[in-house]
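Recall the central idea of this unit: under ordinary conditions, the amino acid sequence of a chain determines the structure it adopts. In this exercise we apply that idea directly, starting from the sequence alone.
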Amino acid sequence: MSADESWKNAKVCARAALATSDPIRRDILVHLAEFWLTLAHHDTSQITEATAVDLAVIEQAQANILGAYNSALY
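Accordingly, the structure predicted from this sequence is:
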C-alpha cells in the first residue's frame, strides 16, 4: 500500500465522517481516518505480508461501512 492510497482512504473517511449525523458512525470514520493518516506517515515499502493482509481486512471493513451507509453519508 502506498502513502497516496493511505491519504486517499483518510480523505474518504474524513469526508464521510463530516457528512453523517450518526455519532457512532462518525466516531468509527474519524478513527479510520486517523489510522490511515498515521499509516501515510510511515514507510509503507517495509510492510510485511501479514500486515498487508491486516490492511486489506481494514480496507474491506471501511468499504462495508461506507457501502452500507452510502445513502446516509452523501
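The chain is about 80% helix and 0% strand.
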